[in-house]
Amino acid sequence: MEGNECQIPSLLNFKKKYCWRKLTFDLSQNDILSLNEKVFLGMENAVCLDLSYNYMSQTLRGGQFNNMKNLAFLNMSFNRLDLYHKDAFNELQSTLKVLDVSNNDFHFKMRGMGHRFEFLQNLTNLEVLSLANNGIGMRIDQRLISRSLQYLYFNGNHLDIMWNGDYNTYTHFFQNLTKLKFLDISSNNLKSVKAEVLLNLPVSLQSLCIRSNSLKNFPWQNISSLSNLCHLDLSHNSLNNLVPQEIKFGTHFSFLDLSHNRLTSIPDNFFNKAESLQNLYLSHNQIKELNHQHLPAPFQKGSSLQKLTLHENPFKCDCNTSWFAVYLRTTTVNIPYLTTRVRCEYPESQQGVILLSIDQHSCQDIYGSLAFLISSFLAVTFTALPLLKHLYGWDVWYCLQVLWAGLKGYSQLPGSDSDHHYDAFVVFDTRNPAVRDWVYNELTVNLESTGHRRFSLCLEERDWIPGLSCIDNLHSAVHSSVKTVFVLSRSANGTEMVNGVIRQAFFMVQQRLLDEKVDAAVLVLLDEMFPKLKYLQLRKRLCRKSVLSWPRNPRAQPLFWNQMRMALSSDNLQFYDNNMSESFI
């Protein structure tokens, strides 16, 4: 069998075969809503009938073509046919040769609706069937059964769903098509083909098309089960390598299309048993070079290869691969686009150059310049480093220390001169147990004991001097602290929100703002639904970053502590809204 005889023909070929100079009726695009006897008046002797592009929605139960005794070619594509009943097309069982029901995906995409193909068993003379672009993927018969079908177009469906199950429900889907020669399962979103699927394809299969899928690998070891296979199309996939072992191709295998993939190399022993291979397509891959010492069998002299495509591959053109240009000049194999599109990609100096134009005697070795650059760099480095260390070693060390200090940030050393003894004075309702627990177990732990900078906090019950009056201790705490943190929450009985100490501290902070022009207030709201006080609303508009709310989501608490550290370390005046600050400072 010759390679061109094994290729899958299009439906136009069959139309020419069965309809040339035969009585043909074209009823396509006639807005036919349903089939009845009136539609076919005067067509009793028709051999070919085209009913495509009518978008009719009809369930075929048999009897629609009773008066058409000679119909051999029927095109019903681009409609909305329901093929569930086994008596569909039953009246054409002795005459129908070609049936096109492609692009009838309306009922196949309906959820919860089953589909059956039992009508195929009744069409005893059917040779060509197109089920393409129907979105077939589930709730259908587990097997297609026909003893006459030879050509099946099943592209544009969902074999990826059918063959991806754990129960192997559709592994034998094509097995009972005992006379099948040509099978097209392209554009089925296949990412892989299981070995069991390949083993259960009809032994009579001669041509198999699996192009335009997403295949990353293929069960090459099981290809020997298809002893009559002569044509295999795996183009437009994602194959990135071939198995490095001998594959037992059949004695009739003559055509292999691997173009438009991601192959980077051809194993030297892969084609050892492909003795009858005549056409090999390797264009549009990522092949850079071939092994000269172990050249694949089709490239060797005496092979049966007649046609080879190599264009649009990123070939490397250097001294190690110059033999390949000689091979291309002297081979008798037909290589399309050899003088126009078989180009060099590496090295960069040869990018875009026609491979045949490379002169073997003046080839360049890309590793020479690279080795020169590397050796020059190492020589300069190991010569300059000791000299630089001797001359500028201390200066480099000092600069690194300055940069490291800038990266770590500035923090005041303990015991240094300062008017403030504390970073913050924390004012809260000591009678509220929930607030006390939050201050001692959350606030002090996160600010005094953890983090890069440890803050010094002043607490009423811990740091006030015994014996002094409350107002003296309060005055000292406010004025000896950089910031004053007000922890506000509803009281335990829900009546008042602030006690006398908090109110007096607030007045002192406000007085400090007027006297010293220092805004030291930081407000922490523990309640999710805090009353909308006018001061709080004004404070949020004036300096939003000084009003913090305790988050209820534990994942947001690290952000809260980061904002708290920023509020205690920075001057509130820097965060003032420019539109309002002039009225206050």
TrEMBL record:
Keywords: Endosome, Glycoprotein, Immunity, Inflammatory response, Innate immunity, Leucine-rich repeat, Membrane, Receptor, Repeat, Signal, Transmembrane, Transmembrane helix. InterPro entries: Cys-rich_flank_reg_C (IPR000483), Leu-rich_rpt (IPR001611), Leu-rich_rpt_typical-subtyp (IPR003591), LRR_dom_sf (IPR032675), TIR_dom (IPR000157), Toll_tir_struct_dom_sf (IPR035897). Gene3D superfamilies: Ribonuclease Inhibitor, Toll/interleukin-1 receptor homology (TIR) domain. PROSITE patterns: LRR, TIR. It is a single-pass type I membrane protein. SMART domains: LRR_TYP (SM00369), LRRCT (SM00082). Residues 420-568 form the TIR domain. It is found in: Endomembrane system; Endosome. It comes from the Eukaryota. PANTHER family: TOLL-LIKE RECEPTOR 7-RELATED, TOLL-LIKE RECEPTOR 9. Belongs to the Toll-like receptor family. This is TIR domain-containing protein.
